[in-house]
Design brief:
It contains eight helices and twelve strands. By secondary structure, it is α+β, with helices and mostly antiparallel strands. The chain has an eight-stranded antiparallel beta barrel, surrounded by four helices.
């Protein structure tokens, strides 16, 4: 699958990480579309003249490894399942292309806007020497707890609730302040089981203000595809935690093609 996407990315121009930072949008509006792989490849062909690819370390496909943290009774997951307007996630993410590791808190507000708080953990920062390099990727440690408390989240000792791997293509609109990601090769792990989603791609449009019409949206209108919710965390917990309340996500899960195996 990786080679299939690489072949379809050849016509795109490239952008640097510095250019991408101008569209980092830690406070933003998100719009998601879920596609089958063949539709995702058609989508890339349709936008190749209007978007550039983010290139990092000579690669335009980045891989991510993430561990999510939650309370033992899955509070973060249940807030999402119960359609709470204000909800949040805690995660540690490693960017495999450059080795960078971040603790992140992601919150969805009732306005539809998403905000994110980040804390780098793979090196000692001069302005924050008291934050140590993260030794255990699966630990919600004192530094992560401090980040949470500093931003109004009163949680300590959260536990790993899901492991996630995926590949990402990041695209920058040449005409409009918009960053877009296309994720594929999604794998979930928990409790010695792994789930692979072999025919699913997730496109996410990220903007500082509500969406205007762009080339990407014209493609989705053309195939009669409407925006839809797809939380990697919510779907992953639904697949891997038998005890989780998941009625709301079952219609989405029934449309997915996945392989289940022991690890």
């Amino acid at each position: 699958m990786l080679e299939l996407f690489q072949n379809n990315l050849q016509p795109f121009s490239h952008s640097s990480l510095e250019e991408s930072k101008a569209m980092s949008f830690l406070n933003r509006f998100d719009t998601k579309f879920v596609l089958k792989i063949e539709n995702a490849l058609d989508f890339l062909k349709s936008i190749q003249n209007d978007y550039s690819l983010l290139e990092i370390n000579d690669s335009v496909i980045q891989s991510y490894k993430t561990v999510y943290f939650d309370t033992p009774d899955l509070l973060c997951f249940n807030l999402h399942h119960n359609k709470r307007a204000n909800r949040f996630k805690f995660r540690t993410r490693q960017y495999l292309s450059n080795g960078k590791i971040f603790n992140e808190i992601k919150q969805k507000l009732n306005t539809g806007k998403t905000i994110k708080f980040r804390q780098r953990r793979d090196k000692i920062k001069e302005d924050a020497p008291n934050i140590p390099i993260l030794k255990d990727f699966t630990e919600f440690d004192n530094a992560f707890s401090f980040l949470a408390h500093k931003n109004g989240y009163n949680f300590d000792n959260l536990v790993p609730s899901l492991f996630v791997f995926f590949n990402r293509i990041t695209l920058l609109n040449k005409h409009f302040p918009e960053r877009m990601t296309l994720d594929f090769g999604l794998k979930y792990g928990y409790n010695n089981e792994e789930f692979k989603l072999n025919n699913t791609a997730i496109v996410e449009l990220k903007r500082e203000r509500s969406p205007d019409r762009t080339v990407s949206q014209e493609f989705f209108r053309g195939i009669h595809k409407n925006p839809t919710g797809f939380s990697k965390y919510a779907i992953g917990v639904s697949l891997t935690h038998d005890e989780a309340k998941k009625n709301r996500f079952l219609p989405r899960i029934k449309k997915l093609t996945y392989e289940r195996s022991s690890v």
